[in-house]
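Predicting holo structure, NDP bound.
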Amino acid sequence: MTILDGKKTALEIKNEIKLKVSDMKANGERVPHLAAVLVGNDGASLTYVGSKVRSCEQIGFESTLIRLEETITEENLIQEINKLNQNETLDGFIVQLPLPKHINEERVLLAIDPKKDVDGFHPANFGRMALDLDAFIPATPFGIMQLLERYKVPTSGKHCVVVGRSHIVGRPISILMSQKGPTGDATVTVAHSRTQNLSELTRQADIIVMALGIPEYLTADMVKEGVTVIDVGITRVADEIHPKGYVIKGDVAYDEVANKASFITPVPGGVGPMTIAMLLQNTLLARQWKV
Ligand code: NDP
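Done. Tokens:
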């Protein structure tokens, strides 16, 4: 059994990007610049944005954090986004989700210039991805594809069951796994909350991507020997013994499933760290595509 080590792979990717940034600096070129927009004071969002900004600093990118009041109107937020769209020193930016309830997320995401949409959430990028054109691929599915590629996990002709059909994970990964080419060419089944007899499907799967957000949902009796398991789930589960008062659980009952798996991602340390690395990779691409 091989552990798909996202922490190690993310570090490798960040080091590769760091080298490219050093070359850019040495050639007198402007380094990639990522901005993050954070509306309000949500604790988890602050943590996520903070680690994105810190990662930029570690690899030599320029970064800008734009903090806006929780009470900002949708119109004013869109005006801020238009400023970022027009800022020529900025290669890409993200708007940290979720947004306060009075703001229509879809309208905000549509306002982002697709050329700067390094989260890959704009329909223009999603459509381009689905049509095999150059596009910003959402960071989590992009990270999964990198893990499969770098660990040489066979995907061609394999049956992949994706559990979850969200726009940021399940749906895009199902498209990517079915595309032609390395880390693609799989036969994909997409399961969701209305799927019947999920275990029958997962037991047939060579590859399972779990992206539903229910801790330890996939158990050993639901998988066959030799399966590859990608666990996207991140849920905080209360744990009084732990100093933080909670532990992070994935969607997979790791210990029992790992016994049957040929490849598996741990939680934490699997898909999670890859997500930030791929956001940085998208920002580098934004800088390069601009040239
Ligand atoms: P969503 O809540 O948007 O989507 C969950 C999906 O799971 C839905 O399609 C839902 O079906 C499906 N689902 C729910 N219950 C079941 C069930 N019992 N059986 C089968 N399918 C079910 O979640 P996200 O895709 O945003 O996130 C999924 C998980 O991944 C979360 O734990 C999240 O925290 C984590 N995550 C981790 C990231 C990382 O960097 N590692 C990044 C993004 C997310 P339906 O469509 O019918 O409602």
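The pocket of NDP is lined by residues 140, 163-166, 168-170, 191-195, 198, 211-214, 232-235, 271-272, 275 (CB under 6 Å).
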